[in-house]
Write a structure and sequence with these properties.
Layout: H1 4-15, H2 23-35, E1 38-42, H3 49-60, E2 64-68, H4 75-79, E3 80-85, E4 90-95, E5 102-106, H5 113-125, E6 127-130, E7 133-136, E8 142-147, H6 160-163, E9 166-171, H7 177-187, H8 202-212, H9 219-237, E10 239-240, E11 246-247, E12 251-253, H10 257-273, H11 281-292, E13 297-298, H12 300-304, H13 309-319
Parallel strand pairs: 1-8, 1-9, 2-5, 5-8
Antiparallel strand pairs: 3-4, 6-7, 10-11, 12-13
Helix pairs in contact: 2-10, 9-10, 10-11, 11-13
């Protein structure tokens, strides 16, 4: 069977023909595929978020669908609807674009609540309901959504119940000057647009998950994961931290048990991708911001002093005792 570093390299090399840079983001997307999780990408327009997800779908060799979310979008535009057949006199389901392996929900926060609720069932249950009948979604199934962090006109903020369903929230930043210079050289001419090919497939991905499940997680590391997640709840409750220090209430709410499961599953997937045989605390510390930043909310007082969720997570990592080797 192919190893984690080998699988990662062939996918990243193929994606790299269309997307320059964003190495950390690409690795997190591969981790999400292995951990069977959805991803929310946040970044300014023009940072290749859509291109990145589309390139991932092509390289992975799975069915890809893109849904442009708008305020007038209807649930039936996403999941499908019942269509009357004159020849038979019966209604039959017409399946929507959600019936794909990799679904890109572009500008997800522009859709109204009804569409969000329809997408929520698909993300959590991996099934949709059309005309009172439940239809399972294909395997594997992933939702990778994008949103703009600055433009808020005509948007509907995602409810906490939905953001909690995302394994990661990734912040996509601007490329470096060298990466942007390479973009000019490579794609300054319209005739030089890249053409990608499939280098993996859904069946291979399903098999690789069995290898991820064999990554060893010691009881000490499991306790460390729980300590980090429960520390966020301490900050939401106020009082005393796990180290015995008194503090004020800094969060409106802490991370849910899904955060513990996400750290566990994503940590194992990252360990396998990098060729390790066990999950180490350092890997948990590395992915903790991506797992936790959308699962906690700052109080008004913290926002007033211009604090951020990432700063709070960094403080928790510094303060939480790391288990001995």
């Amino acid at each position: 069977m192919i190893t984690g570093p080998e699988w990662s390299k062939k996918l990243r090399d193929e994606i790299g023909q269309a997307v320059i840079g964003q190495d950390a983001t690409v690795e997190r997307l591969l981790v999400a595929l292995l951990a069977n999780g959805h991803v929310l990408l946040e970044g300014m327009p023009g940072l290749a978020k859509t291109l990145l997800v589309k390139s991932l779908g092509t390289a992975l060799g799975v069915q890809f669908e893109r849904i442009q979310f708008t305020p007038d979008l209807l649930p039936s535009d996403v999941v499908g609807t019942m269509v009357f057949q004159p020849k038979t006199g019966e209604f039959t389901p017409h399946k929507g674009p959600i019936f794909a392996n990799l679904v890109l929900a572009d500008e997800i926060n522009r859709a109204p609540a009804k569409v969000q609720s329809a997408l929520l069932e698909a993300m959590q249950e991996r099934q949709v309901t059309i005309g009172g009948h439940t239809h399972p979604l294909p395997k594997p199934f992933f939702v990778m959504a994008t949103q703009n962090p600055v433009e808020q006109e005509g948007t509907y903020p995602l409810p906490e119940a939905q953001t909690d369903r995302f394994l990661f929230k990734l912040l996509v930043d601007y490329p470096s000057i060298s990466e942007e210079a390479e973009m000019l050289q490579r794609w300054g001419q319209i005739t030089r647009q890249p053409t990608l090919k499939a280098v993996s497939n859904g069946e291979e991905l399903q098999e690789l998950r069995a290898a991820v499940d064999r990554i060893h997680v010691s009881p000490q590391v499991q306790a460390y994961i729980l300590a980090l997640v429960r520390a966020t709840r301490d900050l939401a409750a106020g009082g005393t931290t796990i180290t015995g220090q008194a503090h004020r209430r800094r969060l409106n709410f802490g991370a849910s048990p899904r955060a513990s499961i996400a750290l566990y599953a994503a940590g194992r997937a990252l360990a396998w991708l990098r060729g390790a045989e066990f999950l180490s605390p350092s890997l948990i510390q590395e992915i903790a911001p991506d797992v936790l930043r959308h699962r906690i909310a700052l109080t008004y007082e913290e926002e007033a002093v211009e604090n951020t969720t990432d700063k709070v997570i960094a403080e928790l990592i510094d303060r939480t005792p790391v288990p001995a080797a």
